[in-house]
Amino acid sequence: MTTLLAKNAEVLVTMDEERREIPGGGLFVRDHMIEQVGPSDELPTDADVVLDMTGQIVMPGFVNTHHHLDQTLTRALPVAQDINLFPWLRAHYRVWARKTPEATRTSTLIGLAELALSGCTTVFDHSYIWQNGSRVDDQIAAAAEFGSRFHVSRGSMSLGESDGGLPPDEICEDEDDVLADSERLIETFHDTTRGSMLRVVLAPCSPFSVTPDLLVRSAELARRYDGVGLHTHLCETLDEERFTLEHFGLRPVEWMETHGWMGPDVWYAHAIHVQPDEIAKFASTGTGAAHCPCSNMRLASGIAPLKAYRDAGVRVGIGVDGSASNDASHMLNEVRQAMLLARLKIGLRPPEGPMTILSTSDPLRRDEWVTARDVLEIGTRGGADVLGRDDIGHLAPGMCADFFSVDLHSVAFAGGLHDPVAALVFCAPQSTTSTVINGRVVVEQGRVTTVDMQPVIDEHNRHAAAMAAGTD
Length: 472
Ligand code: ZN
Hints:
This protein is an alpha/beta fold and 472 residues long. It has two domains: 3-61 and 392-447, Urease, subunit C, domain 1 (Roll), CATH 2.30.40.10; 62-347, Alpha-Beta Barrel (TIM Barrel), CATH 3.20.20. An eight-stranded parallel sheet has the order 8-9-10-11-12-13-14-15. Helix content is 34%, strand content 19%. Helix 2 crosses helix 14, helix 4 packs parallel to helix 5 and helix 12 packs across helix 13. The chain has 14 helices and 19 strands. The longest helix has 18 residues, at 331-348. The structure holds zinc ion. Residues 66, 68, 233, 269, 321 line the site of zinc ion. Residues 66, 68, 233, 269, 321 line the site of zinc ion (ZN).
């Protein structure tokens, strides 16, 4: 039995049912789970591990709801810097297909480290090219080595160019092989227990890279088990919308609905180009969305209706996406961009009516604003909801001990301490001082404790160079 005490936070943000923010707060952990949260002087005074959070803000760990960890190997690839999604994918497919098991391990560790250093404690990943002996197992082993809470998908592609799809034929897989491997992964690794560190998701890549048969069979397989989620990219670009309309005669949401892909076990990455009735459909069926603002800006994809989703009651979380379309895995930065991009959406619509100078209490379209606390909630509680977890996303007794701290007395926050919680989002995104996952300190004094990262970075960059050889 091990215990951990985090005490004396400048402010501890619980995100609990009352959204308590506790000055001088702390929490006490026993065996991976939180036992007490409150003012530090009401907590036990001793523990096996004691973290003094003086001068720091403590937050529940962020939950990343969409990512491709293997793309850290192809960040900022010159040939793919200034193009939109379809040509960007075509520029990358064959490079990604050179990924080896060793490259998969190092890219997973790099991504998880960057995420942990930016406050993310639970990571969902959607890698979908499995060549050269690379397997999801390589990612699972790396996540266990690092110490992240991991929801990993068996991604897949089965609709190659010769059948009208976007990816090259040679990196598409046989559907029976995909489903057999998916079943093996679920049977071997999927853990539904409270506090689980590993769950499996089935994730055919997109409407333009998988056959309808694979969508149907993936959903059938996932639903034979408890808590196996379903995930894909949807409504990311207008190209995708034209693709499904021209090939299938249906809008993307209708296409997925036709194949059983609506419900509380389903969430879609991006979900940008949706109509009001589709937002209502997501809400009524419990279908979720992963909002990925940096990637959406980077690829000129569009602006997802974050506020409309929230107002409609759609489950929505934040995902860093990438890492070749972001090209960061910085969760706090992503949360910040979610707030900023939602505001840009307000300003893009021309004002109506006669010219008026609005007051501070009556800004432009007040009911459309997304606040700093809104995006912190979406990045924590929202992400937990999207992944179907009721044991992460806020700090309370009985919840998983996943949290992080950031030093508030740095250059970045100087002058912003009127409201440190808002400053965490409004000011430039910082790295964490401490990150704790499952009661284990994985970042201490701003450094990863579980893995010696420098050799990993060096090896990762050798793999990245080998994969990119021959591209511009
Ligand atoms: Zn993606």
